[in-house]
Specification:
The protein is an alpha/beta fold. The protein is 32% helix and 22% strand. It binds zinc ion (2 copies).
Length: 243
């Protein structure tokens, strides 16, 4: 990387070699996410085939949802997809990280990607969904966890006090939504927040559009969180990299 006259093509290759591992940080499986068409085992297989080394399962975790019903059922469906994804990942040789996409009662269009919890914390997290982001962060969220506002400039989203967030998903490349990524990137930069990228995968055929590239393959959620918090990653969209 010493040659400053590297062509963009060469520089892209060099950065890809320096950050060889490809992760997806935002993906939904069926049936845990009613909007996803892809079962958890199929989702993991598809990302493995698309050249990924790890995938974070970030299913919607919503209280009082007509789709998932009771608290018990919501948690049950959520956990089942994580187990199936992890089992498949172990078989195929691709890491599966447990994430979630949280929605709080008072701003019911806003979504937050959340990492760094254990499955036995889900009942408590569920109860906090009936409060608001501020209460959750101040009363419950651990320093070691990671909270990212997803696609903050989609229709009907509200920007929150960014002190409550660790990062902003500036580049959400879901094919069916306008996430206004330019505005989101400008906002994240102005707020001085870490920017992340995510495919927000729900439908077959859209795997591989974006990736988070790392130097090492995080062995668990806490390694993933520290890589993101230390900003030791690069973002890839359409095979090109954003530094
Ligand atoms: Zn969805
Ligand atoms: Zn999502």
């Amino acid at each position: 990387m010493s040659d400053i006259m590297l062509s963009p093509k060469k520089a892209t290759e060099e950065f890809k070699n320096l950050y060889p591992y490809r992760l997806e940080l935002h993906a939904h499986s069926s049936p845990a996410s009613g909007c996803s068409e892809v079962p958890a085992d199929e989702l993991v297989r598809v990302f493995k085939e698309a050249g990924y080394d790890g995938i974070a399962l970030t299913n919607h975790f919503i209280a009082n949802s007509d789709y998932t019903g009771s608290k018990e059922n919501t948690i049950e469906m959520f956990k089942k997809d994580i187990y199936l994804a992890q089992e498949t990942g172990d078989k195929l040789g691709i890491k599966v990280y447990a994430g979630a996409e949280l929605r709080f009662h008072n701003h019911s269009n806003n979504d937050y990607l959340f990492f760094g919890y254990t499955l036995d914390e889900l009942p408590d997290i569920f109860d906090y969904l009936n409060t608001d982001l501020e209460t959750f962060v101040k009363e419950y969220k651990k320093e070691s966890s990671l909270l990212i506002q997803a696609h903050p400039f989609r229709n009907n989203m509200i920007r929150m006090n960014s002190d409550l967030l660790d990062a902003i998903e500036a580049f959400n490349v879901h094919q069916n939504h306008n996430s206004r990524v330019a505005v989101a990137a400008k906002y994240a930069a102005a707020e001085g927040k870490i920017m992340t990228v995510g495919s927000d995968y729900h439908h077959p055929g859209f795997e591989g559009i974006s990736a988070t590239r790392t130097k090492t393959l995080p062995k668990d959620e806490s390694e993933l969180i520290s890589i993101i918090k230390n900003e030791d990653f690069i973002m890839e969209i359409g095979g090109r990299i954003l530094l």
